[in-house]
Amino acid sequence: MDANNRSLELSIVVPVYGSATILPVLIQQVYEAMTQEGLADDFELILVNDAGPDNSWSVIQTLASNNAFVRGINLRKNAGQHNAIMAGLNNVRGRMVVIMDDDLQHPPSALGDLMRALKDGHDVCYTKYLNRQHAWWKQAGSRFNDYVATLLLGKPKGLYLSSFKALKREVVEEIIKYDGPYTYIDGLILDVTQSITSVDIVHQARHEGESNYNFRRLLSLWMKMATSFSILPLRFATYMGFGLAALSLVMVVFVVVAKLLHPEFPPGWASLIAVVLFIGGIQTLCIGMVGEYLGRTYLKLNRRQQFIIGGTTWKKADADE
Q: Where are the alpha helices (DSSP H) in 120-231?
């Protein structure tokens, strides 16, 4: 069997964005962890360059030429973390697959524990941080995202949807069938299986630099989850419409009765404006929700791609042999 196409025990997928200086340390620690597990020659590390602002791709090419276990994918344009992960998942060869970040906050020493959890019979294994090293606002956003995932996706309570996780190859094969442009990996996992566990890990401080995630990206991630894998926001809009209609009916009865009992009752201009603005705001919110769904449907019907691969560190002809 060709070396580029043979089956391996483990594939590690890492989306890369602005981490050129961290990558050499990352692959060294991963290799040491795999050596301790006796898998030095039976794993691959797939680095997906998400069109970052630095020279990450040239660093990946150098690392791949010097380390047989490193494979690189270069995206032509920035696709986002989850779509970059999908690019990696579409090219894995391992019987088990681990997804981890590029900033070394996910300790490679935990790879063995993740693999053993899958070997014990679970389809997916997440990690639970014992001491999170994120900023307070990011931790608050994660807690909100966790609550919404429980509400919208039926996530088991107590399960933290971390970005450091392991999946069986069978689960990956189901996930990559999704062809929508707005990918949310955890939503796809929860759609595929209920056999999920977690292991505790020590969350490390970022090796250097600052996180690329900001409030806008966290909000975008929440919108993907809310509108790509659940219709609950649309139902919320419907319930809100019924509630406002009932409230309006009560208000009409109240105004009529008040006018009959107290003809001198002055008209309430301020209260009228407040009600109009409130109802208008709710209507705008509901229209926005519907528009978000329609927009995503439109882009999917027009076959907008999840990612566009500009190059790899291996020859496609060799991999297809």
A: 136-153, 169-175, 185-192, 215-228
Residues 6+ apart with CB under 8 A from 27: 45, 63, 67, 70
**Cβ atoms 186, 150 nearer than 8 A:** no
Q: For position 249, what pLDDT does the model report?
A: 66
Which is more confidently placed, 111 or 232?
A: 111
Determine contact, residues 159/194, Cβ cutoff 8 Å. Answer: no
Q: Helices 136-153 & 185-192, crossing angle to 10 degrees?
A: 30
Q: How confident is the model at residue 317 (pLDDT cuts 50, 70, 90)?
A: very low
Instruction: Give the integer Cα–Cα distance in Å for 128 and 30.
Output: 19
Q: What pTM did the predictor assign? A: 0.74
Are 116 and 10 in contact by the 8 Å Cβ rule? The answer is: no
Question: Which of 128, 147, 306, 165 shows the shortest CA–CA distance to 228?
Answer: 306
Identify the CATH class of 10-211+305-319: alpha beta
